[in-house]
Amino acid sequence: MAVYKEVGVDIHSTDNLVKEIIPIASKTNRRGKIGKIGSFGGLFDLKACKYKDPILVTSTDGIGTKTLIGISENKLEGLGYDLVGMCLNDIVCHGAEPLFFLDYFASSKIEKNSFIKIIKSITAACKENNCLLIGGETAEMPGVYKEKDFDLAGFCVGVVERKKMLPKLNKIIPGDIIIGLPSSGFHSNGYSLIRKVIKDQNISLKEKAPFQSKDQNLANILLKPTKLYYNIISKITKFIDIKGIAHITGGGLTGNLPRIIPKKLSAKLNLKNLPDNSLFSWFQRISNLSDAEMFSTFNCGIGMILIIAKKDLKKMEKLLKKKKEDFFIIGEVTKNTNNGERCIII
Asked: Is the CB of residue 299 less than 8 Å from the CB of residue 248?
């Protein structure tokens, strides 16, 4: 009679590993925490957060084939930031404060050192954003995954007062200003295409970048973690009435910006005001992608977009400069005439 271990699933080893991560995950803490990791479900006391009319905001995502570059280059430390970033940045778009996060890790066989590196980076990302790592799940699935391959998924829950929910579609009008906050690179989108182009061009990730960069090699550049925006946006919203926020992920600038603008309006972006980013310029050159393809696939140097009233622009500039945050005034909201394009780049 076969036992589970003989088919490649070691329950006892995995259970012991989970026990090791409990003290790591316990480093995250915030108001509302109940109990410890290890129960059937994570418990959270929303009442302790003292919201008057709370709306829960949720998001789930993964980081796709970026994991394959991390595995091939044995650089896993930033993948936890990517996972938290892809989920947490989404709920921020609704004005939410992050409450708690859960992760899911699946592989052919869970390798301890790799798993611990990722959990530590998830924990660090959660801690930096006052988000509780409340639980998670691991799965060994030989036959579904091969060799060292694994997959990650994340689940984030946040909360916002009903009257502060974003976007404020009824308040967005022509003339509103579109502000871009810079990305740290590709973040976690488009890596299947990136990997294909690099393979077709026979480019080694161990090479130095063929453009100006402080990073040691291309691998470090491509594995740069997703930037998390909660801390800066939470500071901005205390002083400025933000009308809408868009996280620029899959679908790029042209796919994500229309999601926060009323159908009767369009976003007009000025190409000259977008970041002059050598990473994206290099990739466009070697991939032969058109501008339209780049803007509909990648963030092109802008990770998060904010829409504000024109009267608040000077206040916004002063605040971001005080916080030493880079920003770009990349366009404005206009009327959408004759059912035209929702995002126009000129």
From this structure: yes
